[in-house]
Amino acid sequence: MESYLTPHHYDLVTPDGFITEIHGINELKSLAYVKIDRISPAFVGYSIDPQLVYFNIKSTLAQLGLNGIGLEYQWDRKNNAVHVKVEITALGELAKAMLKLLTPGAYIGKLFAADDRRRVRDPEYLMRMFGRSDRKGRPLLSLGGLEGSGALILEKIAGRTVAFLSLRDGVLTYEPSIYGFLPTLAKALVKNITQTRQLLHLHHHVDPSAPRIIKDNDFLLVRTAPLHIRTVYARVVDHLLPQGYRHMSANVLQPDTTASGDIYELYGASNQILDDIPLEFYTLEPHREHVFFQDRDQLLASLEDPKSLFEAFATAPEPKDHLAAIFVVKGTQLLHLKPEDWIIRDPYKHDFPGLSHPARQAMVVEKYIEHQPAYPFLQAIESGLITSQGILLCRHFPTPLLKRMLLNDQVQRCLKRIYFQYPSASHDGFFSQEDRAMLVDLAKFGIPVFWVDEITGKILQYVFKTDKETGMFVPLNLIEDFRKATVFGVYGSNLIEGDFEKELRSLWSGVLSLRDQMNHPLLSTGTPLAVVTGGGPGAMELANRVARSLGILSCANIVDFRPKDKGVVNEQRQNEFIDCKMTYRLDRLVERQAEFYLDFPILLPGGIGTDFEYSLEEVRRKTGGCPPNPILLFGSVEHWRQKVTSRFKENIASGTIKGSEWLSNCFYCVQTAEQGLAVYKKFFDGTLPIGKNGPIYEEGFCIVEGSLIK
């Protein structure tokens, strides 16, 4: 895959070749043996009908009247080379003089593979390029200016798109000084100096009144408006020229043509005036086409089908712990991925020296970044080698050390989506704190991230809730509901469910019914509801199960509780009733708790973890981290007295919560859904006494009986 990510490679052409031998037949013809080496393994000419591979003489020589036709091709695939027997013909006195100066070592031309599969067939493919420019402001395709030109006429002829370029008046001839320049040009060809064609312009003379008619045994130079090509190859269509006209074999315009593709070299014999030049077009490699993501209809359609993405990832080579990445720019590429298309890396571990050794740290980090399989693609985007917009598929979520590249201006313009299968190569399904920070940054910079999740069998998108500065991975059809949802949460034991299923079901059913009666920012007609748990068994599974059965978004913040060497934490399997999720490593348990951001927490009986979650919700309200919304304590009054009251009274007695005693009015002990709904209804209609100006309850919480709040 990396073989094509080189700055000078196009797969329809070879590099220029040089003369190894040249033998004169007469003053007008010579036979040259040309060697072309350093051919890319991806050169299309290797795999198509040899009759479609043509020798293309340098346009510098064609403008002097030299034509070169490839007669024989001897391929040396092992050494990435080819030997071409070329017949060189001189048309006119100037060409005869130049032919005598050609020597072994002179670079005179290359091969072009006219692959019919790459021929542009629909004019719309080209039309959409008009008015668009590359990152440097250069037109992608135009004749005479950024917006295109009326002098460029596109037609569909025999199943291909043909552009007819109108010619300017007159013809080009040469000043006598050109003969003195030829020896210098011959030496430049041996040195393979580029841009020699521009030097010919110094010796051109424009005769605006001369008729554009070809004479036998001579050649004709004509002009069009300046042509810019960045997105395709263009090739002169000989059989669409007037009878008697032929174009020199320098008939291919490459996709780096910038305002210079305006001179055409013809030979033959005709009395008919030449009015235009017909060009057909061949597409570049998909990653170089400058195609916009929204224009890739097939790719967009494929990304809507989860099956196509799961099948694409299935082509990544084994073993699964190896890092793998591929940049995809079109639908056919996604649907026909092969293992060799991916860039693979071993998951080496690096010992970072740390900030106490900044020079070594920078060096090791740079090596680590360059080892990532996504690096060659991101580097190619930065350098301008990849110009089409597309998506990055990574087996594992990209390391946060790639953040500076991912958020680079050029990468941001090209990289439209990131898809991954596993959050981490070392921690499987669990994100690090740095991963989550990068997810937030990517969301803010407008780069969507998708989890091709084997557990749920769905495509999940990271969705950022701006009002809560956090996000989760959400099924595509539930994204808008997640963004707008009012969030309930359940804390409780992972060991026991308790007998609260009936009451939770009734409670949330009642809240769903309340929507049409309320006009509150958190509850009104059509407000989506979400339930968030820790995603494990016990009370968490109960809550997720009830939420899903009611059509409420079922979400989870899942921690890696897998057994550690000295761990005493119970293994907590993920329950099967989760729609949306975020994952955390155990060393970031506190950050995970802080990112619940619940509008309405509900606590069921639980152990140490539940006690911690109770305290965290208390602290959030005290510090103003969230508004004083009500918290329901499901269970017996005696249970919550044992949990809460003694601590609350001791804090009051010691004066350590002076001024914060009002927090007791945020907690409501209930045993039934009816009691919980009574609390919510009063809160939503603005009659619940809660917050700093509310009452202080001596138990540390309010006891609810029926619809009465004591």
Outline the fold blueprint.
Layout: E1 17-26, E2 29-36, E3 53-57, H1 59-62, E4 66-76, E5 81-90, H2 93-101, E6 107-113, H3 123-127, E7 141-143, E8 152-157, E9 160-166, E10 171-174, H4 178-190, H5 196-200, E11 204-207, E12 219-223, E13 227-229, E14 232-236, E15 245-247, E16 252-253, E17 257-258, E18 263-268, E19 276-283, H6 297-303, H7 306-314, E20 323-328, H8 331-335, E21 343-345, H9 358-371, H10 375-383, E22 390-396, H11 403-406, H12 409-414, E23 415-422, H13 433-444, E24 449-453, E25 458-465, E26 470-475, H14 479-484, E27 486-491, H15 501-514, E28 519-520, E29 523-524, E30 529-533, H16 539-549, E31 553-559, E32 580-584, H17 589-594, E33 600-603, H18 608-623, E34 631-634, H19 637-654, E35 667-670, H20 673-684, E36 702-705, E37 708-709
Parallel strand pairs: 22-23, 23-24, 27-30, 27-33, 30-31, 31-32, 33-34, 34-35, 35-36
Antiparallel strand pairs: 1-2, 1-6, 2-5, 3-6, 4-5, 7-13, 8-9, 9-19, 10-11, 12-18, 13-17, 14-16, 14-19, 15-18, 20-21, 20-22, 24-25, 25-26, 28-29, 36-37
The coarse silhouette is: elongated
Number of separate strands? 37
CATH level 3 topology of the domain at 286-454: Cytidine Deaminase, domain 2
**C-alpha termini separation:** 71 Å
Summarize the amount of helix as a percent range.
25-40%
Overall pLDDT confidence: 90
Class inferred from helices and paired strands = alpha+beta
Strand order of the largest sheet: 32-31-30-27-33-34-35-36-37
Low-confidence stretches: none
Q: What about the largest sheet?
A: 9 strands, mixed
For the record, the CATH architecture of the domain at 286-454 stands as: 3-Layer(aba) Sandwich
What is the CATH top level name of the domain at 286-454? Alpha Beta
Share of β-strand residues: 25-35%
Radius of gyration: 36 Å
**Count of helices?**
20
